[in-house]
Amino acid sequence: MTSAQAAVEAVRKTVTVNCPVEHAFRTFTEGIGSWWPLHTHSISVMDHGSGAPETAVMEPRVGGRLFERTNDGRECDWGSVLVWEPPHRIALEWRVNPDNPPTEIEVRFSADGDGTRVELEHRGWDRFETRGPETRDGYNSGWETVLGEFVNAIDR
Protein backbone atom coordinates (compact mmCIF):
# COMPACT_ATOMS: atom_id res chain seq x y z
CA MET A 1 0.00 0.00 0.00
CA THR A 2 1.35 3.41 -0.90
CA SER A 3 1.14 6.44 1.37
CA ALA A 4 -1.29 8.06 -1.08
CA GLN A 5 -3.66 5.10 -0.73
CA ALA A 6 -3.48 5.09 3.06
CA ALA A 7 -4.13 8.82 3.19
CA VAL A 8 -7.66 8.63 1.75
CA GLU A 9 -9.69 10.36 4.44
CA ALA A 10 -12.85 8.83 5.85
CA VAL A 11 -16.21 10.37 5.00
CA ARG A 12 -17.50 12.07 8.15
CA LYS A 13 -20.99 13.51 8.50
CA THR A 14 -22.83 14.86 11.54
CA VAL A 15 -26.49 15.73 11.91
CA THR A 16 -28.58 16.66 14.94
CA VAL A 17 -32.14 15.41 15.19
CA ASN A 18 -34.92 16.53 17.52
CA CYS A 19 -35.61 13.33 19.42
CA PRO A 20 -34.15 11.18 22.20
CA VAL A 21 -31.13 8.98 21.46
CA GLU A 22 -33.18 5.78 21.68
CA HIS A 23 -35.66 6.98 19.05
CA ALA A 24 -32.90 8.17 16.69
CA PHE A 25 -31.10 4.81 16.99
CA ARG A 26 -34.28 2.77 16.37
CA THR A 27 -35.28 4.93 13.40
CA PHE A 28 -31.81 4.69 11.83
CA THR A 29 -31.53 0.93 12.32
CA GLU A 30 -34.78 -0.99 12.66
CA GLY A 31 -36.74 1.75 10.87
CA ILE A 32 -34.33 2.14 7.94
CA GLY A 33 -37.02 1.02 5.50
CA SER A 34 -39.15 4.04 6.41
CA TRP A 35 -36.61 6.67 5.39
CA TRP A 36 -33.81 5.30 3.17
CA PRO A 37 -34.03 6.99 -0.28
CA LEU A 38 -34.44 3.82 -2.36
CA HIS A 39 -35.45 5.86 -5.41
CA THR A 40 -31.85 7.13 -5.67
CA HIS A 41 -29.76 4.81 -3.44
CA SER A 42 -30.60 1.24 -4.34
CA ILE A 43 -28.85 -1.76 -5.83
CA SER A 44 -31.96 -3.02 -7.62
CA VAL A 45 -32.42 0.32 -9.41
CA MET A 46 -29.08 -0.35 -11.10
CA ASP A 47 -30.00 -3.98 -11.89
CA HIS A 48 -32.62 -3.69 -14.59
CA GLY A 49 -33.49 -7.39 -14.32
CA SER A 50 -34.98 -7.15 -10.84
CA GLY A 51 -38.10 -5.65 -9.39
CA ALA A 52 -38.41 -2.15 -8.01
CA PRO A 53 -36.95 -1.50 -4.55
CA GLU A 54 -39.59 -1.82 -1.86
CA THR A 55 -37.82 -1.52 1.50
CA ALA A 56 -34.50 -1.68 3.33
CA VAL A 57 -33.93 -3.99 6.30
CA MET A 58 -31.29 -4.02 9.03
CA GLU A 59 -31.36 -7.10 11.23
CA PRO A 60 -30.80 -5.86 14.82
CA ARG A 61 -27.82 -7.94 15.95
CA VAL A 62 -24.12 -8.56 15.34
CA GLY A 63 -23.95 -10.63 12.18
CA GLY A 64 -27.35 -9.36 11.04
CA ARG A 65 -27.86 -8.54 7.39
CA LEU A 66 -28.43 -5.12 5.85
CA PHE A 67 -30.31 -5.50 2.58
CA GLU A 68 -33.01 -4.17 0.32
CA ARG A 69 -36.05 -6.13 -0.77
CA THR A 70 -37.71 -5.61 -4.14
CA ASN A 71 -41.41 -5.74 -4.90
CA ASP A 72 -40.91 -9.18 -6.48
CA GLY A 73 -39.35 -10.55 -3.26
CA ARG A 74 -35.69 -10.47 -4.28
CA GLU A 75 -33.19 -9.50 -1.57
CA CYS A 76 -30.05 -7.53 -2.45
CA ASP A 77 -27.37 -7.52 0.26
CA TRP A 78 -25.75 -4.23 1.25
CA GLY A 79 -23.66 -5.50 4.14
CA SER A 80 -23.72 -6.87 7.66
CA VAL A 81 -23.75 -5.62 11.23
CA LEU A 82 -20.30 -5.68 12.86
CA VAL A 83 -21.18 -3.83 16.09
CA TRP A 84 -24.62 -3.54 17.70
CA GLU A 85 -24.59 -1.34 20.83
CA PRO A 86 -28.07 0.17 21.21
CA PRO A 87 -28.75 3.01 21.52
CA HIS A 88 -25.28 4.49 21.05
CA ARG A 89 -23.35 2.77 18.26
CA ILE A 90 -23.50 0.54 15.23
CA ALA A 91 -20.83 -0.47 12.75
CA LEU A 92 -21.47 -2.07 9.39
CA GLU A 93 -19.46 -3.88 6.78
CA TRP A 94 -20.60 -2.15 3.57
CA ARG A 95 -20.42 -4.15 0.36
CA VAL A 96 -23.09 -2.91 -2.03
CA ASN A 97 -20.94 -3.61 -5.09
CA PRO A 98 -19.44 -7.11 -5.29
CA ASP A 99 -16.75 -5.77 -7.65
CA ASN A 100 -15.44 -3.46 -4.90
CA PRO A 101 -13.79 -4.31 -1.60
CA PRO A 102 -15.95 -3.83 1.50
CA THR A 103 -15.74 -0.65 3.53
CA GLU A 104 -16.91 0.12 7.06
CA ILE A 105 -19.54 2.50 8.34
CA GLU A 106 -19.73 3.49 11.99
CA VAL A 107 -22.61 5.53 13.36
CA ARG A 108 -22.66 6.98 16.88
CA PHE A 109 -25.67 8.47 18.67
CA SER A 110 -25.24 10.83 21.64
CA ALA A 111 -27.45 13.21 23.58
CA ASP A 112 -27.17 16.84 22.48
CA GLY A 113 -29.45 19.03 24.56
CA ASP A 114 -33.01 17.86 23.89
CA GLY A 115 -31.93 16.12 20.69
CA THR A 116 -29.45 13.58 19.41
CA ARG A 117 -26.16 14.09 17.63
CA VAL A 118 -25.63 11.45 14.95
CA GLU A 119 -22.05 11.02 13.71
CA LEU A 120 -21.37 8.84 10.69
CA GLU A 121 -17.91 7.75 9.57
CA HIS A 122 -17.43 5.76 6.36
CA ARG A 123 -13.89 4.42 6.04
CA GLY A 124 -11.76 1.89 4.24
CA TRP A 125 -11.10 3.76 0.99
CA ASP A 126 -7.46 2.60 1.05
CA ARG A 127 -8.75 -0.82 -0.06
CA PHE A 128 -9.68 0.65 -3.46
CA GLU A 129 -6.08 1.31 -4.51
CA THR A 130 -6.11 4.12 -7.10
CA ARG A 131 -9.95 4.45 -7.11
CA GLY A 132 -10.11 5.31 -3.39
CA PRO A 133 -10.35 9.10 -3.65
CA GLU A 134 -12.92 9.01 -6.47
CA THR A 135 -15.10 6.41 -4.74
CA ARG A 136 -14.87 8.28 -1.44
CA ASP A 137 -15.99 11.52 -3.11
CA GLY A 138 -19.09 9.81 -4.52
CA TYR A 139 -20.06 8.54 -1.10
CA ASN A 140 -19.30 11.90 0.49
CA SER A 141 -22.07 13.53 -1.54
CA GLY A 142 -24.31 10.47 -1.32
CA TRP A 143 -24.34 10.52 2.47
CA GLU A 144 -25.62 14.12 2.35
CA THR A 145 -28.76 12.88 0.58
CA VAL A 146 -29.18 9.82 2.78
CA LEU A 147 -28.77 11.67 6.07
CA GLY A 148 -31.08 14.41 4.84
CA GLU A 149 -33.80 11.78 4.43
CA PHE A 150 -33.09 10.46 7.93
CA VAL A 151 -33.45 13.96 9.40
CA ASN A 152 -36.71 14.46 7.45
CA ALA A 153 -38.06 11.16 8.79
CA ILE A 154 -37.37 12.20 12.37
CA ASP A 155 -39.01 15.59 11.78
CA ARG A 156 -42.20 14.02 10.37
Molecular structure report:
This protein has 156 residues and is α+β, with helices and mostly antiparallel strands. The chain has one domain (3-155): START domain (Alpha-D-Glucose-1,6-Bisphosphate, Chain A, domain 4). 26% of the residues lie in helices and 35% in strands. The chain contains four helices and seven strands. The protein has helices at 3-6, 21-28, 43-46, 132-155, and strands spanning 11-17, 53-58, 65-70, 75-85, 89-94, 103-112, 115-123. The protein has a seven-stranded antiparallel β-sheet with strand order 1-7-6-5-4-3-2. The protein is globular and about 40 Å long. The termini are far apart. The model has no long low-confidence stretch (mean pLDDT 92).
Let me know the CATH homologous superfamily: START domain
How many extended strands? 7
Task: Kindly provide the name of the CATH class.
Answer: Alpha Beta
Q: Count up the domains.
A: 1
Task: Tell me briefly what this model is.
The protein has one domain: Alpha-D-Glucose-1,6-Bisphosphate, Chain A, domain 4 (2-Layer Sandwich).
Secondary structure layout plus pairing:
Layout: H1 3-6, E1 11-17, H2 21-28, H3 43-46, E2 53-58, E3 65-70, E4 75-85, E5 89-94, E6 103-112, E7 115-123, H4 132-155
Antiparallel strand pairs: 1-7, 2-3, 3-4, 4-5, 5-6, 6-7
